[in-house]
């Protein structure tokens, strides 16, 4: 009887330990959630309004300190100073629309244990990004997830491209008229 209890307890312990060992963890103890999937994330209305394709970007869900983070990938399109333009990579292999963000000068991306400024990133570089479900924040980590590296970002506003070269044409025309008047005046005085 006691031998059967020991065997049953040992099997139960082995099964529960194997489930814990099967969980993927990062170096900062963020655990891949086995119960929550990308479809279960409740994105805030602000995040969905600014990023309608965010559900198509989600690869897996990590949980750290009771908060859920979606792991996504982005491709760097352009970096100018601390302004970065990127395209999200969808799980089906397509790329989303380009987005531009302005990052603080203290923002760093941690790649292979080394920290990089935004200006150090190169065009075409693919980055793993961890997004909390309640806001659009950019945290770039190669192998881990750390709350201190998150920076809340908003879409950078761009001026509309409604200006035309008509003003320059008018300005050049006025300059040529003034030059013609000046030359006419000089010619009359000399003759």
How does this model look, in words?
With 191 residues, the chain is of the alpha+beta class. The protein is 29% helix and 26% strand. The protein has four helices and ten strands. It has helices at residues 2-22, 45-50, 54-57, 166-190; strands spanning 31-32, 60-64, 67-80, 83-89, 99-102, 109-111, 114-116, 126-132, 137-138, 151-152. Strands 1, 2, 3, 4, 5 and 8 form a six-stranded antiparallel β-sheet that branches. The protein starts with a helix and ends with a helix.
Helix count, DSSP H or I runs of 4 or more residues: 4
Counting helices, strands and paired strands, the structural category is: alpha+beta
Give the mean pLDDT.
Answer: 73
- Alpha-carbon Rg, integer: 29 Å
Percent strand: 25-35%
Helical content class: 25-40%
**SSE topology string:** HEHHEEEEEEEEEH
Shape: elongated
Largest sheet data:
6 strands, antiparallel
What's the SSE blueprint?
Elements: H1 2-22, E1 31-32, H2 45-50, H3 54-57, E2 60-64, E3 67-80, E4 83-89, E5 99-102, E6 109-111, E7 114-116, E8 126-132, E9 137-138, E10 151-152, H4 166-190
Antiparallel strand pairs: 1-2, 2-3, 3-4, 3-8, 4-5, 6-7, 9-10
Features:
elongated; alpha+beta; six-stranded antiparallel beta sheet; 191 residues
Structure at a glance:
The chain is an alpha+beta fold and about 190 residues long. About 30% of the residues lie in helices and about 25% in strands.
């Amino acid at each position: 009887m006691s031998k059967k209890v020991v065997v049953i307890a040992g099997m139960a312990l082995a099964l529960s330990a194997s489930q814990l060992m099967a969980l993927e963890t990062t170096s900062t103890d963020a655990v891949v959630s086995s119960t929550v999937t990308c479809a279960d994330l409740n994105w805030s209305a602000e995040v969905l309004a600014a990023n309608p394709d965010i559900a198509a970007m989600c690869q897996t869900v990590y949980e750290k300190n009771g908060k859920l983070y979606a792991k996504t990938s982005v491709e760097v399109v352009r970096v100018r100073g601390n302004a970065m333009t990127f395209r999200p990579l969808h799980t089906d292999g397509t790329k989303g629309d380009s987005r531009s963000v302005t990052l603080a000068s203290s923002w760093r991306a941690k790649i292979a244990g080394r920290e990089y400024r935004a200006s150090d990133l190169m065009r075409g570089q693919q980055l793993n990004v961890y997004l909390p479900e309640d806001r659009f924040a950019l945290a770039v980590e190669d192998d881990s997830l750390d709350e201190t590296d998150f920076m809340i970002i908003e879409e950078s506003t761009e001026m509309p491209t409604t200006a035309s070269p008509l003003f320059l044409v008018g300005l050049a025309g006025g300059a040529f008229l003034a030059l013609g008047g000046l030359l006419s005046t000089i010619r009359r005085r000399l003759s």
